Amino acid sequence: xxxxxxxxxxxxxxxxxxxxxxxxxxxxxxxxxxxxxxxxxxxxxxxxxxxxxxxxxxxxxxxxxxxxxxxxxxxxxxxxxxxxxxxxxxxxxx
Length: 94
Prior knowledge:
Shape: globular
Largest sheet: 3 strands, antiparallel
Oligomer: single chain
Distance between the termini: 41 Å
Helix content: 25-40%
């Protein structure tokens, strides 16, 4: 059993993402985002990968609400990128 709940699911088309988390999952996600923030403050371009156990990781869980049929696809790999101003412009993310 995981020590946190951090599940991402999409609707059938993948147009809507829902996040399910408990307090430990919130703390885990905040720690990852704080790490990205700290690196951005150093003008670095950090990123992280969060994976489910199905994809060889332990960061994401694959729990879904059984009562909500529109949530049909678990997300097994979440990439989070932090972009400084220079690289944001180079990648046309402005």
